[in-house]
Amino acid sequence: MTAAGVSPSSSPRLPSPPPFTEVQIGPQSPSVGETFGKDAELLGSAGDDDASTRRIRPGTRAADMASGPPLIPLSQLDSPFQLQEHLKSLYHHFTKPEGSDTVVPINRQGVDRSLWLYELCRFLTMKVNNLIIAFFAETPPCSAQTCPEMRASEWQYLCAVHDPPKSCCAIDYCCHTLDWATNTLTSPNTSPAD
Q1: Which residues bind Zn(2+) (predicted)?
Q2: 3-state secondary structure at position 85
Q3: Is residue 147 annotated as involved in ligand binding?
Q4: Annotated binding residue 174
Q5: Model-level pTM?
Q6: Where are the chain's structural domains?
Q7: Three-state DSSP string of 99-152
Q8: How far apart are CA 172 and CA 170, in angstroms?
Q9: Which end of the chain, C or N, has fewer beta carbons within 10 A?
Q10: Which of the 8 DSSP states describes residue 74?
Q11: 3-state secondary structure (DSSP) of residue 183
Q12: pLDDT given at position 22
């Protein structure tokens, strides 16, 4: 097989990470005279802060995108992704408290330290996406034309995603590094749940 059909300027594409977990909402309207029971009512009564309704829809205002899930104690969460959901709610609660601009340190409340750090790394990696999106909002936007190399003063960074590592434009370097980190942290091979 020859590499003649591959453009030298094209960069390798990493597989997409798995989608984030969402709360499943039960059916909204029973048949005449039928009820779905207490559990279905709880699922169906999910408010504006549940994960599935917080999905960013076209036309959503930026101020509405930052809303987070309600703060529920970790011991009261009953889901396969309870630590992930708890971190999201803590982040929102402490970084966007009502009537305050103070950020309070978050403790791990009796969770295994390595699991806490693993989930925190996954969460922070997701938040770094906001920084990369902001690069596109610059005037002019960050691109191969405006930032052809990833540099810090006289140092040039080589993108380790390529084999062998090579120079990338700054935005590709950022995207490749974030994709690699996301794929590493969401890989079933590196998950502490094994």
Answers
A1: 142, 147
A2: helix
A3: yes
A4: no
A5: 0.47
A6: 35-49+66-111, 112-194
A7: CCCCCCCCCCCCCCHHHHHHHHHHHHHHHHHHHHHHHHHCCCCCCCCCCCCCEE
A8: 6
A9: N
A10: G
A11: helix
A12: 47
